[in-house]
Amino acid sequence: MNSPSRCELTEEDYEAFQWDTREDCEVRQILDRVADKWSLLVIALLDRNTLRFTELKYKIDGISQRMLTTTLRHLERDGLVSRTVYPVVPPRVDYALTPLGMTLHKTIQSLVTWTEDHQSEIAVARARYDKRVTA
Amino acid sequence: MNSPSRCELTEEDYEAFQWDTREDCEVRQILDRVADKWSLLVIALLDRNTLRFTELKYKIDGISQRMLTTTLRHLERDGLVSRTVYPVVPPRVDYALTPLGMTLHKTIQSLVTWTEDHQSEIAVARARYDKRVTA
DNA sequence: GATCTTCGGACACTATCGGTGACCATGGAA
DNA sequence: TTCCATGGTCACCGATAGTGTCCGAAGATC
Question: pTM, whole model, 2 decimals?
Fold first, then answer.
């Protein structure tokens, strides 16, 4: 880790953990975006469904209008989501996954599946931990 | 979405997007934890490696001591990471993935791999978007 | 034609959360 | 005796996310 401006790995690093953990590394930046809690939900919801802004807002419980707007902007900028504006009144804006977004969807779905499959184990672990701490 | 205190889905919801998006749903809570940017890095780094606190702090560029502490506490509570304290001076604390954490590692690694595989596409999309916006 | 409604979004304000730097305990090294 | 290394904790502060309000435009209603 000698050159902070590049994403280079020594062989030692490769052996040890295979990917760059430097903050300014592009992979890190994309991961931060993709692993965002709202982004995950948006991408998961847009699988096979074109949705309007209001539909997304309705389906994602707890998201604010502002966060949905910024999340969609980010995803659009990254080429994961397409935004189609219809010049009608009241306005209609459709959001859908791009082909690139669809490739990501598989991975995100596996994350969701993992969570569903292991939520009881996690609940048990949490209960055990809390018991240990308060004891 | 009529009962805010339970994680129940109507058949319509299942057809439409397959998982609960309610904010108080346990899956959502676990996802928020697991999809955290620091958690991702910690889990990825702990693959096949037991690491000490300082090693993690050194390897994860940009993480503060407080965030590393809280992230590790969360992961420990969720049963994904084990914490071993050696009663020596100066203190020595080892962190490692639990079996449960190892099952998550595969998914996280696929997320990282996706990011690596598509970072150039994303860079292109971003450039195009920025050009369109500033134009 | 006045007014209401709808939808996507901008904006100002506020609360919360993460970052920063100081401090701590301890025993061995210098 | 002083210093340091290690794994933390804590108080403070700024950035970031959340909340509520307002908006623009056209069609429906009266």
Answer: 0.85
